[in-house]
Amino acid sequence: MNSLHVRALLVRGMLAGLAAGLLALIVAYVLGEPRVDAAIDFEDAHAHEHGEEVFSRTLQSTGGLATGVLVFGVALGGIAALAFCVALGRIGRFGPRATAAFVSLGALATVYVVPFLKYPANPPSIGDPDTIGKRTALYFLMIALSVLLAVSAVILGKRLAPRLGNWNATVAASAAFLVAIGLAYAFLPAVNEVPKDFPAMLLWKFRLAALAIQLTLWAGFGLVFGHLAERLLAPKAATAEPRGTGTAVDSTTAAAH
User: Fold this and answer.
1) Which Pfam families does this chain map to (predicted)?
2) Final residue of a domain: which of 171, 193, 215?
3) Does one domain contain both 68 and 152?
4) Where do the H-state alpha helices sit in the chain?
5) Which of 18, 138, 144, 172 suits 235 as a labelling partner, its CA being 20 to 30 A distant?
6) 220, 19 Cβ separation under 8 angstroms
């Protein structure tokens, strides 16, 4: 794949990230913000001192939320587009759409779901301010381990494939990944700073909303970017009949090399 293709895919990835960010913003506003408001109300009701707000809650839930989600979407879209450039033609004989779907699914799993299962999202009223640095470091460490182990599992699967076959190699690599993640879960310290009187249903709904936002972001990116990438790399295949798919896969796979 030449530098012009990489640059074009990077731009398309950022645009797809922006589009996915808009979808995630809607989900965040509809599902997430009511839970954040409820958590803040809980904090206000139990706080002995109330600090002065630097930014109003209205600004935080509108302009602040939009800025954060959209910038996040654009940044991740660019990074995912570069990952797509590396993956295309190297993880199997898949076309641009399928490769974009695999990259999105892998990113959702490794960057969010795996760390989320160890250190789930909490509303703003949960957590000791004195431990925020430690909690942030542990969360990013879990992300780094998840991504590193996922990449290692892919490499392991490719090396085992000639001896075990694609299916058995994939199963073996996946099992190795799960075992390694399990060990990381076991050895990394747990963090549980949820107040005993915090409403369990509110906590559950907040975490589901956080998961829904990420699912929307990555699903939206995969669909939009897959379409844009296919139009760039295989423009004829984007409008061709299904029986032309095999040719498109071969041509785009060759372009990746």
Assistant:
1) CbtA
2) 193
3) no
4) 3-27, 33-46, 57-59, 65-87, 96-107, 114-118, 132-164, 166-187, 200-233, 235-238, 245-256
5) 18
6) yes
* Enclosing domain of residue 132: 128-193
**Cβ-based neighbour number of residue 130 at 10 Å:** 7
Instruction: Give the chain's domain count.
Output: 2
Cβ atoms of 251 and 62 closer than 8 Å: no
Burial class of 114 by CB neighbour count within 10 A (0 to 12, 13 to 18, 19+): buried
Q: For residue 247, which of 104, 257, 235 has the smallest C-alpha distance?
A: 235
Low-confidence ranges of the chain (pLDDT < 70): 1-2, 44-62, 125, 127, 235-257
> Which residue's structure tokens are 């993880």?
91
Distances from the Cα of 186 to the Cαs of 26, 81, 127, 170, 179, in angstroms? 36, 33, 21, 24, 11
Length of the chain: 257
